[in-house]
Amino acid sequence: MSKHVAVIIGGNRRWDRSRRLMPQVGYLTGARTLKVVVDMCRKWGIQVLTVFAFSSDNWLRPKVEVDFLMRLLENTLKDEVASMSSRDGWFLMAASHDPRVKDKGWWVFVVVFCGRRVD
C-alpha cells in the first residue's frame, strides 16, 4: 500500500450545475467527500495525504464564490484540526504563496494550525 496519496479536487461546479443546484452545494458536497477520503486514508494506513484544493485560476471566479470557498476552507481546516488532534495525532498543513491569501490574513490563519507562523 502506498504511504502517500495526492488528491486534486475538481468538478464541484460541474456536478452542481448538472443537477441545477447553486455552486455552494457542489463545494459543500466536495468538502464532505474529502472528509471521507481523509478517513479512508487513516483506515488504510496512508501516512501522507496531499490535497490540492485551490488553483490560481480559481481567483478568476466571482468574488462571492471565492469568498465562499475561502470560508469553507477555513471551516474545514478548523474542523479537521480539532478532529485530528483528538484522534491519532495527524497534522495538517496548507499553504499558499499567493499575495491575495496573505493580504486577507488567510496565510497566517492556515500556518498557525501547523504550530508555527511563517511569514
UniProtKB/TrEMBL annotation:
User: Mind listing the GO biological process terms from this record?
Assistant: plastid membrane organization; polyprenol biosynthetic process; response to cold
Question: Record keywords: Isomerase included?
Answer: no
For this record, the Gene Ontology CC terms, alphabetical, are:
chloroplast stroma
GO: which molecular function terms?
A: ditrans,polycis-polyprenyl diphosphate synthase [(2E,6E)-farnesyl diphosphate specific] activity
**Which UniProt keywords are given for this protein, alphabetically ordered?**
Transferase
Keyword RNA-binding in the entry? The reply is no
Transmembrane ranges, per UniProt, are none
Question: Can you name this protein?
Answer: Alkyl transferase
- Organism of origin is Lactuca virosa
